[in-house]
């Protein structure tokens, strides 16, 4: 990591701490004060269980975490609340770490094709803009493909991000066939020696069978242009949707084979625990997280930083 990147990353982590579960960590809030000086007992563990469930960590992951903590309480390894919170942090890191797999752009593919999918309003187009900014900053030549042809506004929104980031955009009119747009985009990107093609798609629900078929068709069309494409199927999930986001992940994965996740809107939600439920259930790479609407409210997923931001909130810097 260059010094510049390290500086940016530090800034991002600072904002992650500040924005996640504002103003206090929902997991540890006042726990130390309320239970100060007490040995870890059933009442404290029950309070922690309630908080994990409230934060949408989910029943399965919560049980797993508590079972581990209880075993350590029995062995008298967790004598006070601070030790309990450290153990909780470690337990979260253990669940999240396998999902800390950054997206690497394989330069053998020209272009490297990223197909971006998800339900309506999850943050697909915004995440494409933010990702374009990162890639352009890394000196890659980026093209945005306007595969959401349902609304003229969708194409305009992508165009704004193209202008803002210095990426190119390839679009046809509203109502065009998204498959045709993708095919054209891939051919054009190849002829212009573009490094990365970011393909936007319209939001859709798993229950809308014809729209899921359309997504599969977009994939097939890309494969006609390049049998190895898409090189990444990025599912964008709105973290404020809690358990619903988990359900979407399962369903999109079944339908189109997701290879990476973006979790958005982690600012302003008390449901950040859904990230743990998703990690435990699916184990898919979490490529990026979004913590706001601006281009730099976006960063690579870091398991330890995330666990620490969840458990400790803003106050703690250990
Ligand atoms: N607070 C916050 N808002 C976000 C984040 N990511 C996206 N948004 C906002 O969420 C709204 C929807 O984002 P879009 O990028 O348009 O979502 P989309 O998935 O492309 O939506 P459709 O194309 O309609 O399916 C916009 O107002 C974004 O600014 C985030 O990480 N945090
Ligand atoms: Mg969109």
Topology summary:
Elements: H1 3-19, H2 31-34, H3 42-54, H4 59-74, H5 81-96, E1 112-117, H6 124-137, E2 142-147, H7 152-165, E3 168-170, H8 178-191, E4 196-201, H9 209-225, E5 232-238, H10 243-256, E6 260-264, H11 274-282, E7 286-290, E8 298-300, H12 303-312
Helix pairs in contact: 1-12, 3-4, 5-12, 6-7, 8-9, 10-11
Bound molecules: guanosine-5'-triphosphate and magnesium ion.
* Strands, count: 8
Q: Name the average pLDDT.
A: 91
Q: For the report, how would you describe the main beta sheet?
A: 8 strands, mixed
The main sheet orders its strands as 3-2-4-1-5-6-7-8
Number of helices: 12
User: What is the radius of gyration computed over CA atoms, rounded to a whole number of angstroms?
Assistant: 21 Å
Helix-and-strand structural type: alpha/beta
Cofactors and ligands present? guanosine-5'-triphosphate, magnesium ion
State the fourth-level CATH superfamily of the largest domain: P-loop containing nucleotide triphosphate hydrolases
Question: What is the helix fraction of residues, given as a range?
Answer: 40-55%
Q: Assign the CATH topology of the largest domain.
A: Rossmann fold
Query: Which of globular, elongated, flat, extended, rod-shaped describes the shape?
Result: elongated
Low-confidence sequence ranges: 1-7
| Total separate domains | 2
What is the CATH level 1 assignment of the largest domain?
Alpha Beta
Note the beta-strand portion: 5-15%
Distance, first to last CA? 21 Å
Q: What's the order of the H and E elements?
A: HHHHHEHEHEHEHEHEHEEH
CATH architecture of the largest domain: 3-Layer(aba) Sandwich
């Amino acid at each position: 990591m260059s010094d510049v990147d390290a500086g940016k990353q530090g800034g991002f982590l600072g904002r992650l701490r500040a924005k996640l579960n504002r103003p206090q960590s929902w997991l540890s809030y006042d726990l130390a004060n309320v239970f100060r000086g007490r040995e870890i007992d059933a009442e404290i563990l029950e309070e922690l269980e309630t908080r994990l469930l409230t934060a949408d960590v989910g029943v399965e992951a919560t049980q797993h975490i508590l079972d581990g903590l209880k075993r350590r309480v029995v062995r008298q390894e967790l004598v006070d609340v601070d030790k309990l919170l450290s153990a909780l942090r470690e337990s979260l890191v253990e669940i999240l770490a396998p999902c800390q797999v950054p997206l690497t752009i394989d330069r053998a593919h020209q272009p490297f094709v990223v197909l971006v999918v998800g339900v309506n309003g999850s943050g697909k187009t915004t995440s494409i803009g933010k990702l374009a900014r990162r890639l352009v900053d890394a000196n890659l030549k980026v093209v945005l493909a306007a595969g959401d042809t349902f609304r003229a506004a969708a194409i305009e929104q992508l165009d704004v991000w193209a202008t803002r980031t210095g990426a190119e955009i390839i679009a046809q009119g509203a109502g065009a066939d998204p498959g045709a747009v993708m095919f054209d985009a891939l051919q054009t990107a190849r002829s212009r020696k573009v490094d990365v093609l970011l393909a936007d798609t319209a939001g859709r629900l798993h229950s809308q069978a014809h729209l899921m078929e359309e997504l599969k068709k977009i994939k097939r069309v890309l494969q006609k242009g390049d049998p190895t494409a898409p090189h990444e199927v990025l599912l964008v999930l709105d973290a404020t949707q809690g358990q619903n986001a988990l359900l979407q992940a399962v369903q999109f994965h079944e339908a189109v084979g997701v290879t990476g996740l973006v979790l958005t809107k982690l600012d302003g939600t008390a449901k950040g625990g859904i990230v743990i439920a998703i990690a435990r259930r699916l184990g898919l790479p979490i490529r990026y997280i979004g913590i706001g609407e601006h281009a730099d409210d976006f960063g690579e997923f870091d398991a330890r930083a995330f666990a620490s931001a969840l458990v400790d909130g803003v106050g703690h810097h250990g």
